[in-house]
Amino acid sequence: MAAQSKYPIVLSNIESVPGREIVEFYGVVTGNTVRAKHVGRDIMAGLKNIVGGELAGYTELLQESRQEATERMIEQAQSMGANAVINVRYATSSVAQGAAELFAYGTAVRLA
Amino acid sequence: MTAYFDVIVNFGLPLMLLIVAYSVGTYLERKHFEDIRAREARLQGFPVISFGTVPADWKITSTELVAGSVVVSLDYFKRIIASLRGLIGGRIKTYEPLLDRARREALLRMIEDAKGRGYDAVVNVRLETSRLASARRNGKGTAGVEMLAFGTAVSFAGR
Fold first, then answer.
1. What is the pTM of this model?
2. Could you read off the pLDDT tens digit of each residue along chain B, which spans 159 residues?
3. At what angle do helices B13-42 and A39-51 cross, to 10 degrees?
4. In chain A, which residues have their Cβ closer than 8 Å to the Cβ of B124?
5. ipTM of the assembly?
6. Fewest beta carbons less than 10 Å away: which of A14, A51, A67, B87?
């Protein structure tokens, strides 16, 4: 899933971390990744397009990409000395044909 | 002989594709809706709220960001219907159940993820929709639609 991470850092999409106190703000941190689909997945998706429904290959691809964007955001937060990122938002945009940008941003903070 | 062959290739194949797309697509959609309803019924007691303030009597012990997503696409038959609908305008009924089931599926995946990892509620749930451009047709076509649901999972002691 998009939100899991290998780093020991608290993520939240609220303006606080419930039950914890924020002692310092570091500012906005961002992470992005641009991914293209590979041909095999595109062909499978093309077939799936006939009967409709979930395109599992794309779901997986976007989850991986979002994970990567999140991790880049976390790395930036950690380099500032933060131990949490609050108010996390995700955005997706189609920049070029066959490619999508996944973007994650939030506010790096230090929790007590 | 070749004339017959031409007719079959020009009209027979697209027609067969339409019939297959309609029957398989409709069947899959019905199955998916049944599955969604069953899972929603199972998760009914689980608090999922779309605002960020946590009730004051919840003693929060841990939090984590959770997400669920799904990419879906229309079947061939429904796409044809939708493009015909585009000529006269109005409500495109074939798209509505698709987006509805995708959104509910994304929400369910998020909730199941939160519940599976031992959390008691998900707060500040956000839903997002984005279109995946197709590599064909100069990026104008739609390869699929992504639904994303994310929120902050919380667990609390003694409510």
1. 0.85
2. 677 777 777 777 888 888 888 888 889 899 999 999 999 999 998 999 998 887 777 788 888 999 999 998 877 888 888 888 878 888 888 888 889 999 999 999 999 999 999 999 999 999 999 887 666 655 566 678 889 999 999 998 865
3. 90
4. 13-14
5. 0.82
6. B87
